[in-house]
Structure formats: C-alpha cells, structure tokens
Amino acid sequence: MGSLSALSIAQAHKKLKAKEISAQELTQACIDRIENVDEAINAVVYKNFDKALEEAKKIDSSGMFDHALSGIPYLTKDVFCEEGVPTTACSNMLRDKNYVPPFDSTTTKRLKAKGAISMGKVNTDEFTQGGSTETSCYGVTKNPWNTEKVAGGSSGGSAAAVAADECLFALGTDTGGSIRQPAAFCGVSGIRPTYGRTSRFGVMSMASSLDTIGPLCKTVEDTAIVLEAISGIDTLDGTTGNKDVPHYVAALTGDTKGLKIGLPKEYFSDGMNEEVRQSIMDSCDVLRSLGAEIVDVSMPHTEYATPAYYVICPSEVSSNMARYDGIRYGHTIEKPNDLIDYYHKTRTEGFGDEVKRRIMIGTYALSAGYYDAYYRQALKVRTLIQKDFEDVYKTVDALIAPVTPTAAFSIGAHEGDPVAMYLEDIFLDPQVMAGIPALSVPCGFTKENLPLGLQVMGPQWGESVVLRIADAYEKATDWGERKPNLYERHF
Amino acid sequence: MSSLSSDDVRHIAKLCRLTIKDEQVDTFATEMSSILGFINKLKEVDTTGVEPTPQATGITNRFREDEICNDRIDPKDLLDCSGLPIMGNLIQTPSAHG
Questions:
Q1: Which of A109, A278, A330, A443 is the most buried (most CB within 10 A)?
Q2: Of A342, A370, A379, the CB nearest to B54
C-alpha cells in the first residue's frame, strides 16, 4: 500500500469510518510526506503540525467520522486567517512581525466545524498578485512534475502540495485564474465557484469584486465534497449569495447525457499550442461518448477580458492595499521623520515590485483624468462579456475550453515582462468578469510530461453541472491518476 | 496617455505613499507604460449606451441591525496585532507634524 497521504478524501473517509486507519495516522502520513518532499518544491510556508496532531487525536477520541471531511488533513493558502496561526500573504509586509490573526476566516471555521484538520500554510504570490508564486517573499514554488517549471499561481503552493500528496486537499483563491491555472499546471482539480458562493470573510483581499474562495483536490468528487462544505451565505460577507447550496456529490451522475456543451471559437486561434488544442479536441470526443452534444459557439468580447481585468484588478488592489500602512499590523520602521514618511517607508520596504506596480496602475486608472477612459470603460466591457455568457447559456448548459495557452512555463521565463505574465490569463479572465463558476480537470500531458487542464464552465450558481461534466470526464480518463515522480528524482 | 515618464512614476508613487528608488524608476516607467499600452485595447470596444457592471451577481446593499459583536473578536486582540506601542485603547503612531 502507498502512503496514506496519497488517498483521496472519499477513499480516506471510508477507511476512517471503518476504523481501518485513524485521523492521527493520516495526519502523520501527510506530515512525513511534507518533511520528505517539500524541500524540493517549496510549497509549505508554515507548519502547524503539533496542533494538527492534537486535533486529529481529539477526532479519533470522539470516533465521529460522519462527515466526509472529519479527520481529513488539509493545507491553506497563506491568505486565510486562522486564529493563532501566523498568516503573511507571503509578503514582507506581514512576515516581519509574524502577523497572527485573532480570528478565523469563515471558510476555515466551516471546515473546522466539519472536523477537517488544518496542517499549515502554503505558498502564494505576494497578496495573491501573480501567476507563478514567483512574487512570494518565501521564494518560488516548484512544479512537482518538473522542478524547473513553475507550479503556477497564485495558488501554486496549494496545487503543488495536492499534486505531491502532502495533504488531501488545499484551499486556494481565484481572482483571475489563481485556482484553475495552478491546478492545470500541477495536474489536479480546482474550482473557482460563482462569485459570492463562498465567503471571503477573513481572507486577505486582492480585488474584492473578483475574489473567490475554492478548493484544489485530487479528484472532482473531492472538489464537490469540499465546495459543498464551504459554500453558503455568510452574514460577515455581504456579497455572498442567498442561494441554497445543492448536494454537489449527488449531482455526479458519471455521464453527460442530455447536456449540450459549447466550444467557444475565441479560445482557439491558428497560432495556438498544438498539444493544448489537441487535448481539448480529444476531450470533446470523450464527452460525446458520455452522451453530451458539443456545439460551436462564439463569444465576441473574449479578447477584452484580460485588458479589463488588468484595469479592474489593480484599481481594487490600490484600494485594498491602502490598509497596509504599518499602523494596525505589519511591517514597522524605526525613527521616521513624520507620519507620511512612516507610511512611505513601511510600504516601500514591505511591498514587492508587482504589488507596487498594481497599486500604481490602479491609482492611475482611478485618477480623475483617466477614470472614464480606463476604470469606467473596463466596467462597461465587463457588462458586454457578461452578456456574451448570458446569451450563450440560452442555448448550451455549459462551456469547455483550455485553461492555459501552454503547459507550465519555466521559472523566470517572464521576468521583467509583466504583460507576458498577464497574457497567461487569457482563458481565465472572461469567467471572472462574468462571475461564473469554472473548474480545471486534468486532460492530458505534453511530450515533456507536463499536465494540461480542461476548463469546464457553467452559468452563475451552476456549479452542479460543472462538477457533473468534469467528474464524468475524469472517470472516463486516467489523466488524474498519474502521479509526479518526486521520490525517484530527489532521493 | 499610454507612456509614462520617470517623473510621472515618481508622482504616482507619491500619491500611493510609495517611494521608487532612482535606479528603479526607469524600469517601472517602461513596465507600467507597456501595461498601459496593453489595457488601451479596451478603447477598441464601442460601449455607447452600455451600463457599467461593478459587481457580477447583481447583489445590492444588504442591511442588518448594527449590533456589537465583541463575543467574536476581542478589540484588544486586534490592537495587539500592531507593531507600534499601545496606549490604553490607542495605537501610538509617529507624529503627523514631524
């Protein structure tokens, strides 16, 4: 038998319930795995192992494994506040003073109530601003499939940790693709839910009108289990939707019968990567064999989503980052000349270059002279993108597309070229503008043995159909069962 | 405008309460200019008569009673997060007047 840490949530739950294994054994297996392989990938930035084992012991003593997440160990992106656990957003702004939040995020609180066991924090781009974890103050997370490649970002630590079997699942955030892109790069399943399906309370904000919370998991079934546990209205986040949370696992029928799935032509161009194109065409054949009808559709404003994103996101960043001024938390400096000098020095020392760029672009886009040309225009374009989706969902149940233009790129490939990095998001921003759910599921490997992802999108609040299609696809293929060979390579 | 000068960068940085080192100003000017060039693509779109969408799911203001909920977080614990000296219920900041 392989390590217990390689089990899916569903598999581990059966064994826990049958008392074949204990929560302590499962948690210890994950801890051992982290100690064995994390040096090679740099996913974990804070180890809360003693507390995790203590929680596991309590759950074992209670013997209560009724919920699928009871006794299941997980890791959390370093932007989720947990009471008493250092949380730094992987920024020097918070790292220096070891910010220790005195409260829990709604998501970690909901997981705790179900008996899930938090083992610590994983890497992210600084304040989730980036697509490769290269902007983290703890250094880049490496891809478990090839450690010269990025794991993606910003939830790169979450994706790498799941792919490397360091945990049974991880939490991430997706503002402009930050769950789906690393999930695709690392060969795991990850969902960005409808905006407002999950609560943002207690999660450090990047762009408040775009940020979403979601899980990264080994299987789509696990994704459904975790999403159901963390979804629902929250009085602490006024943007959560007052919608019933469906029983997502029950929606996994294993087929796509009766479903009409759209293939938007704007995600395919003459110059696109052939391996990516072929993986999606092959996926269409699989979905057809499972009963779906695949139809060509057009969404004319797709190409404007990324430019709109890189106006709206930095604008909201410039506002959200204003709270980091060295007063209530975070980095401080000695002997400032006055308060303004203090602000300048704490922020200049605390923030990295990408955060500074976004704050400045956002401030510029929101300034009186440019507000209409940039910010207001971007919000209008967002309306048109949303209308593209509304129109197409009148005729199809869901959409599929690639997640990324290529497989994982090399570490340092986009250094000094922020626009090249932003263009990695082109298939990931339309869904953000429209606030719809979208999931990445493994759909192939390149000749270099790097994973590729299939993106499945649904209408707002339509996570069930997204999960159903992705689960049926996953069960009909074996892409998700492959594991990176970390042991052979490094030991 | 789609290109920013070094002076523009210094001015924007000042508004953001950031200081960009002299040796980095040109790099920031080049990178930010390329970002502005990229987002200028939005000008191609005819948005006449289109309403802006500030929030995707259309939720409007949600009101509730303004209740004190100190049972959830002790204000003292929040004060303790500051790296600056605490005086009673206040954080002692550097002087605003130098």
A1: A443
A2: A379
SS3 state of residue A98: coil
pLDDT of A400 > 60? The answer is: yes
Please report the number of interchain residue pairs, chain A to chain B, with beta-carbon separation below 8 angstroms: 183
The reply to whether residue B57 touches residue A241, judged by beta carbons under 8 angstroms, is yes
Closest CA–CA distance from residue A362 to any residue of chain B (Å): 10
pLDDT tens track for A161-216: 999 999 999 999 999 999 999 999 999 999 999 999 999 999 999 999 999 999 99
Q: What is the domain partition of chain A in residue ranges?
A: 4-301+384-490
Residue A466 neighbours by CB under 8 Å, 6+ apart: A191, A398, A437, A438, A439, A456, A457, A458
Catalytic (active site) residue A269:
no
State how far the Cα of A140 lies from the Cα of A124, in Å rounded to an integer: 9
A416 Cβ under 8 Å from any chain B Cβ: yes
Question: pTM above 0.95?
Answer: yes
Q: Does A345 touch chain B (CB under 8 A)?
A: yes
Judged by CB atoms within 8 Å, which residues 77-136 of A form the interface with B?
96-97, 99-103
Answer yes or no: A231 catalytic: no
The fold adopted by the segment(s) B6-44 is Histone, subunit A (1.10.20)
Q: Shortest CA distance to A37 belongs to which of A141, A152, A135?
A: A141
CB-based contact (8 Å) between B69 and chain A?
no
This complex has an ipTM of: 0.95
Peptide bond preceding B2 in cis form (omega within 30 of 0):
no
- How does pLDDT run across A273-326, given as a tens digit for each residue? 999 999 999 999 999 999 999 999 999 999 999 999 999 999 999 999 999 999
Q: 3-state DSSP call for residue A239? A: coil
Q: Known catalytic residue: A289?
A: no
